[in-house]
Write a structure and sequence with these properties.
Elements: E1 3-7, H1 8-17, E2 19-20, E3 28-33, H2 43-49, E4 56-57, H3 62-75, E5 81-86, H4 90-94, H5 96-104, E6 110-115, E7 149-153, H6 159-171, E8 179-184, H7 185-189, E9 191-195, E10 202-203, H8 213-225, E11 229-233, H9 236-239, H10 243-253, E12 257-259, E13 274-277, H11 284-292, E14 295-299, H12 305-308, E15 317-322, H13 325-328, E16 334-337, H14 340-351, H15 358-380, H16 390-400, E17 406-409, H17 414-421, E18 430-432, H18 441-452, E19 458-463, H19 464-469, H20 473-480, E20 485-490, H21 495-503, H22 519-525, E21 529-532, H23 536-547, E22 553-558, H24 583-596
């Protein structure tokens, strides 16, 4: 057996560069790195040597660079991914929030944080977190609950088993999620005689498990017997590349479709069977269908509380078509464990020419017809203050946007309005991180989306609260030439949570705190083209100008912090205090108890 002598870091980077996706592209599009004393000497040198096959990118914040990697993987439908490396200590712990984002959303990212010395010669090394009851603990142990696979490398040869296992998790449709390989900084620099075969090129194919025959028969029987069937389309439709299969199935059997945040765009917005968003941020059409459905086929969705209306929206029988058994059986669902594309094909064959009852199809068509002018009014509406609502801003942005534009968002009130109102015109046009609803994801996420498909215009919609949490990747987008259009809605604080606070009886407190920042000047200082839109017409014009701009544009517009779209939506379980001196809280508690009942 021939061998090659390399450091652990050199072996790691060479191995990653030899992994390929089905389309022939390298599986790892690159490594995001912020160097420090825990990764610069060994891993930095290895990345430099491999820079032509495994590009290295520099960000300004470790959490943000990981958000870029997450968004890239999501926009690539989990077919390609990126790695992220940081130094030991705060660099590593900065990535923890992003690891949780990837974990919740089932997205592949390889985290490579630096760690303490395995030899313990210089203990405690700079930035080391010491646990005086357990000498094996480092800050990187915090990655364990937010990683699908975790390993700490204390010897170079451990990579021989750790890397193949990491790849299995990153590419498996059921296990998929973040992997953390914690790299002791002395081990990174240690050499080993590696089998040359370890670095042979490998193509990772997408596994497509078919359904179990008994589960398939039970699901088909339930759907054939249904008087009022409904489909809920989740992100798994995209990851299985099954949008056309969904459209064929829904059309062939006359089953209407509602969409989760992750599934929005899986069926064209104009499709006659598309009822739009479901749940707390859903349309009236989709939620009425969900409340009346006797059988619900939940496809590729985690069925989180915003989708289910805190488990109060659905009264019918659930069938869970999902490649992950944990998700397929949620909420006492009848599981149909399979790849979405394979599952839909098998269901279509099993159901033959069966169609949902004509009465049900007529009813959902009427609900859809009623909702459309309601949505149009929200997109064009004004407010009592004269400042535009989030919905009206969305309308102006959509009118000014180019065809095939991608909208990116994550947290606050905007995701609810976008879910209800943004007309997604096909796969990839709607990119929301709403599994973890992570403030600060938006701009970095937009950068990852742009990296995945530079041909599309990327529109990031972000509130002033999220913007001020994390805006540094504007500078990264300018430096890399990856142009974004950022719509910055300034409502003077955390408007969404202020509304929730008051809706649960609380006094307006600690949310609408004036920031006093000239947001236009701030964005310009980061290198963006920046302007302020004084009204919706000016905003629409600015969005059109941004389409032809040479670099990232940030458009600031002041908005109403109180206004939101009342139409649509479903109940959300937010616990209200049982005891309070405030009459408003006591009234909210009474309403809460009535809703729970």
């Amino acid at each position: 057996m021939s061998t090659i002598r390399l450091t652990a870091a050199q072996a790691l980077t060479r191995y990653l560069a030899a992994q390929f996706a089905e389309n022939g592209q390298r599986l790892f599009a690159g490594v995001w790195a912020i160097f420090g004393h825990g990764n610069v000497a060994a891993l930095g040198e290895a990345l430099y040597a491999q820079r032509d096959t495994l590009p290295t990118f520099r960000a300004h914040n470790e959490q943000a660079m990981a958000h870029v990697a997450i968004a890239f993987a999501k926009a690539s439908r989990r077919r390609r991914m990126m790695a992220c490396t940081s130094s030991i200590g705060p660099g590593a712990s900065n990535m923890l929030t992003a690891a949780a984002v990837a974990h919740v959303n089932r997205l592949p990212v390889l985290f490579l944080p630096g760690d303490v010395f395995a030899s313990r010669r210089p203990d405690p090394v700079l930035q080391q977190v010491e646990n005086w009851s357990d000498a094996t603990v480092s800050v990187n142990d915090a990655f364990r609950p937010v990683s699908r696979f975790f390993d700490r490398l204390t010897r170079p040869e451990q990579l021989l088993t750790a890397l193949p296992r990491a790849m299995q998790v990153l590419t498996d449709p059921a296990e998929c999620g973040p992997v953390t390989l914690s790299l002791c900084q002395d081990v990174q620099a240690e050499a080993f005689d590696w089998p040359e075969a370890f670095f042979a090129a490998r193509i990772w194919h997408t596994r497509r498990p078919p359904p179990d025959a008994r589960e398939l028969a039970a699901a088909a029987d339930a759907l054939r017997a249904a008087r009022c069937p409904l489909i809920i389309a989740g992100g798994g439709v995209f990851y299985s590349e099954a949008e056309s299969d969904l459209a064929r199935f829904a059309g062939a059997h006359g089953v209407p479709v509602a969409e989760t945040q992750a599934g929005k765009g899986s069926l064209a917005d104009a499709h006659v069977l598309n009822l739009g968003a479901i749940g707390v941020t859903g349309t009236e059409a989709a939620n009425r269908a969900a409340a009346n459905a006797d059988v619900i086929l939940a496809i590729g969705t985690r069925l989180q509380d915003f989708t289910t209306g805190s488990r109060a929206l659905f009264r019918g029988r659930l069938i869970g078509l999902n490649v992950q058994p944990f998700d397929a059986g949620k909420h006492d669902a009848q599981p149909l464990v399979a790849d979405v594309r394979e599952g839909l094909a098998a269901l279509t064959a099993a159901m033959g020419s069966h169609r949902a009852p004509a009465r049900w199809r007529k009813q959902v068509a009427a609900w859809r017809e009623v909702w459309q002018p309601t949505a149009a009014a929200a997109l064009a509406g004004g407010t009592r203050t004269g400042l535009p609502s989030d919905a009206a801003v969305i309308g102006a942005v959509r009118r000014g946007a180019a065809d095939r534009s991608v909208v990116v968002c994550a947290a606050g009130g905007l995701p609810g309005e976008l879910h209800k109102l943004w007309p997604a015109d096909g796969p990839g046009s709607y990119h929301l991180e709403y599994g973890y609803s992570c403030m600060g994801y938006e701009i970095a996420g937009g950068l990852g989306v742009k990296m995945a498909d530079p041909s599309r215009e990327v529109i990031v919609m972000v509130g002033d609260g999220s913007y001020l949490m994390m805006n540094s990747e504007i500078a990264t987008s300018v430096a890399t030439g990856l142009k974004l259009t950022v719509i910055l809605l300034d409502n003077g604080g955390f408007g969404c949570i202020n509304r929730l606070q008051q809706a649960t009886g609380g006094a307006a407190f600690n949310n609408l705190v004036p920031h006093g920042v000239d947001l236009r000047a701030h964005a310009a200082a980061l290198g963006a083209i920046a302007e302020t839109a004084t009204d919706l017409a000016a905003l629409e014009d600015a969005v059109r100008r941004a389409r032809t701009a040479a670099r990232t544009t940030v458009i600031v517009i002041e908005t109403d912090p109180v206004a939101s779209t009342e139409a649509g939506g479903a109940w959300w379980d937010v616990a209200v205090p049982e005891v309070s001196d405030r009459e408003q809280v006591r009234a909210a508690r009474a309403a809460y108890q009535a809703a729970r009942a």
